[in-house]
Amino acid sequence: MFPTDQQLLTEPPVPVPLPPVSGTRNTVTYGDVAGLLSGDLPPAPSPSVFYRSDGTCLFYSGQFNLLFGEAESGKTFVVIGAIARALIAGQRAVFIDMDHNGVQAIVSRLLDFDVPPEILADLDKFRYKEPEDRHDLIQTVADLKTWRPHIVGVDSIGELLPALGLNSNSPDDFTIAHTAVLKPLAMAGACVIAIDHVAKNAESKAQGPTGTVAKARAVGGVMLRVTVKEQFSPGNGGSCYLNIKKDRHGGLRANSPSGDKEPLAGTFKMFPDSTFAVFAPEGGERTPASAPAVDLAELKALNPPPSSVRDVKERLGWGGTRATVALKVYRDTFPVPHTEGRGTGTQDIPRSAIVPEEHGTEAA
Fold this sequence. Notes:
Layout lengths: L4 H6 L22 H6 L10 E3 L5 E3 L4 E6 L5 H14 L4 E5 L5 H10 L4 H4 L5 E4 L4 H14 L3 E5 L1 H7 L7 H17 L3 E7 L4 H6 L4 H7 L3 E12 L3 E11 L16 E7 L5 E4 L13 H9 L7 H8 L3 H14 L31
Parallel strand pairs: 3-7, 3-8, 4-5, 4-6, 6-7
Antiparallel strand pairs: 1-2, 8-9, 9-10, 10-11
């Protein structure tokens, strides 16, 4: 019988004494290592969900996979893209909406991604769930374990823990949530792809989401960092980089550029007509320096466009480091034609002129 949510989340495990031993056997079931070694060892798991342009897939079935990054970096688009591919291929998919995106927003995006309406309307193919409370969430997990979807999107970890009455900043509480919700779905065979956010602090952001160690330990598939390349906007599309923070089985990392601590796994691109693709890295392609999406949006909104680090500092009140990094990424993302002359505020400043303040010079 499935335990109640109260038992699952609050009651400590009760020690169970080992059954009586008879000879060399008892009634406890352990992994059959002898049987495994007597036959052919199975190959290491390979990613099999959401293929990129070279045929390599990003996510692992039967495992907990995690996407993390800043707000508006494209995380939800990536998950919905993976769900769309699965549905079109005839597989079952679920979107668990802890972030309150709303059924209309999720279904509209799936329609934009060319999922036929009749598939979305078929409860045996697609299920959308916005849990009302902890009990509703636990019962949903029990139902989905029986239904056995191929892919489950969870948006997001930050809202999952409070829904269970747990602390979002506690690694131990994440472990409880993983055991109650994420792990059971993965063990039922689903490719679980959860979304998480990064802290605002720059140092913490570089490490990953809050409680990174506990979350990385729980990931049985891949843990990908998502950073914006081209800001997503209605009618214009957008793109984001996907970098490998962790790949437990190494299948994705083996087919991605080596040498970087967080190698580029691919670039998710959404075109203005809402078609999308994941492009494999080419040659020595790397993710360039990144800046928060909100910083890029502020720079893009400036009129006239930003002309230098000093200009950005004066107009937005930013420090030298923030202005330097954001302006460099802005120029890589939104290049403008070179204009002769000075003082107009619209000319293109050579990137070599954008240097940290401590170097003592800035472009005028």
